[in-house]
Amino acid sequence: MQKLDRSGATTSLTSGLGASAVALPPVLGAPATGTVLQPTVPGLGLIPGASIPVITQSIDTAPPSECLLLKNMFDPAVETDPDFDLDIRDDVREECSKFGQVRHIFVDKNTAGFVYLRFDSITAAMGAQKALQGRWFAGKMITATFMSTQQYEMKFPE
Fold it and tell me: Which UniProt keywords apply (predicted)?
């Protein structure tokens, strides 16, 4: 996927797969749920009503299925090649074929970088989702979420 990067700041989708997870701050505008943790800091536990509020991000996701939606893969406003979607399609297919057979792929040129994928199995889709979620490409962080089979079939009737 490096050949598609025009910024020079990309890393391979597979680089750093062994890296440990890093907690990210909440995204502005994203739904959040409030959780209050009891303090473990000495002294704070002695103050009545003292607590440490922790905001965690709630991501609305479908349960695992053979269908994935990749977001933030490209910005159509900055693409200059009219067939950029074909390059992205081929690159994503090549990367995702490491996890199983890709039955269908569609790069939606009129979105904020959406790439729709359907695999031959849930296991393959789960492997791809795990590998692609949070990866950086062309200076953008990829979001990989599952779609229900029904949603996918409504968008792409066979």
Answer: Phosphoprotein, Repeat, RNA-binding
Global pTM?
0.63
SS3 52: strand
Per DSSP, what are the bridge partners of residue 56? 33
Backbone angles phi, psi at 108, to 5 degrees: -90, 105
Domain 67-155 belongs in CATH node 3.40.50.1100? no
Domain locations in the chain as residue ranges: 67-155
**150 contact partners, CB below 8 Å, separation of at least 6:** none
